Predict the structure.
Amino acid sequence: MTEHRLLAVGRMRLRTWPVVAVSLLGLLVLIVVSILAAQRKADIAYAHLDSLNTRYRDVETRLRRRRHRPLLWENCFTAGSSR
């Protein structure tokens, strides 16, 4: 009777390791997929921030040029009104 139990317990152990192995493999796959998805989202966010930064620098450059060089038509109106 005890031999029967030992054999039954041995069979159960042999049957459970594939389930554990498949479960751990599934967890590993889920981790890898989530890391890849997070990396893709981070790449998209980084590209968007880079685009915004480029736009900001372009606008800042235009404003800096505008501050140092007033438009000619403004000078014409102010010069014409003083006559």
The mean pLDDT is 83. The two ends are 122 Å apart (CA to CA). DSSP finds two helices and no strands in the chain.
